[in-house]
Design a protein that fits this description.
With 285 residues, this protein is an alpha/beta fold. It is 27% helix and 27% strand. The protein has 6 helices and 15 strands. Helix 4 runs parallel beside helix 5. The longest helix has 18 residues. The model has no long low-confidence stretch (mean pLDDT 96).
């Protein structure tokens, strides 16, 4: 079993309408389709670009305004997934539930289904600047290409939650991210490699590039997409199937071979998942 994934280094910039946002998203999707991608990953906080549209007075919208785009966002990406017969991880979008804001990753299936995974770990800036709430539970998602999980940015920095995803059967972790400087970017990138090694899974990572000068907390981005593997002989020595150019407006594409992943788990140079010492430390089984 193998399938092709594309990760979008989405270029944030000021726009004037929802239609402009839709056209730009479709451009990336059509590009990935031309490469034969079966899964397409967009970055975290993708829809904050809509805040730059502004109100009638020309002021940028606030995070409290973003949920008003939910229906249009979901309809747009569900339509793209069906039109192009691909799975789309549509980055994240901010939802309002019971008076609280949540940062939620969305999986759009080719048959029109939509699955959600709220971000589980919230950074201090997201709490202080946007009063963002944390999700309550982890799900994994069955697809016709295998079992996946969606863990957003800061989530990947916590080994326990990726252990849980692996224990639930996930072979691929899709990680939409948004970091504004090198420190944040490297935290997410380095821990993505660690999680791939620890759990013998693939990690597909991407982030925003560009900036939204009128939108608070989105005035800078530092991003690079990567398709990350365990570090073992059948894979590239650096554990990288593909990576983008830092801060470039582009897409990367790679093939994920699940059979190879399973063979490495059984007969690799190291078998980190099998060799866990659950007699010494608490772990998911």
């Amino acid at each position: 079993m193998a399938f092709r994934v594309s990760a979008v280094q989405y270029h944030l910039h000021t726009i004037s309408s929802f239609g402009e946002f839709a056209a730009e998203c479709e451009h990336y999707i059509r590009t990935a389709e031309e490469y034969g991608a079966e899964f397409i990953l967009f970055p975290e906080f993708l829809t904050t670009q809509l805040m730059s549209i502004g109100d009638e007075q020309g002021n940028a919208l606030t995070i409290e305004d973003l949920p008003q785009f939910t229906d249009r966002y979901r309809e747009l990406f569900a339509g793209f997934a069906q039109k192009y017969a691909v799975h789309i991880i549509g980055g994240t979008h901010v939802l309002r539930r019971n008076g609280k804001l949540y940062n939620v990753a969305h999986l759009f299936y080719p048959d029109g289904r939509i699955a959600e995974q709220a971000k589980l770990h919230i950074t201090p800036a997201e709490v202080e600047g946007w009063n963002m709430g944390a999700g309550e539970g982890l799900e994994v998602f069955q697809t016709d290409k295998g079992t996946i999980a969606m863990l957003t940015c800061y989530d990947i920095e916590f080994p326990e939650i990726v252990r849980m995803a692996r224990a639930k059967g996930a072979d691929v972790i899709f990680c939409p991210s948004c970091t504004d400087d090198r420190h944040g970017f490297h935290r997410v990138r380095y821990t993505s490699h660690a999680r791939a090694i620890e759990n013998q899974v693939y990690v597909v990572l991407t982030g925003t590039v560009g900036s939204l000068p009128t939108v608070d907390l989105m005035r800078a981005s530092f991003g690079q997409a990567a398709v990350i593997t365990p570090n073992d002989i059948p894979f590239p020595p650096q554990g990288l199937l593909a990576e983008g150019e830092i801060n470039g407006d582009m897409i990367i594409t790679a093939d994920l071979d699940l059979d190879l992943l399973y063979r490495v788990r059984e007969r690799g140079s190291v078998t980190t998942w099998r060799d866990r010492r659950t007699d010494l430390y608490t772990d998911w089984t």
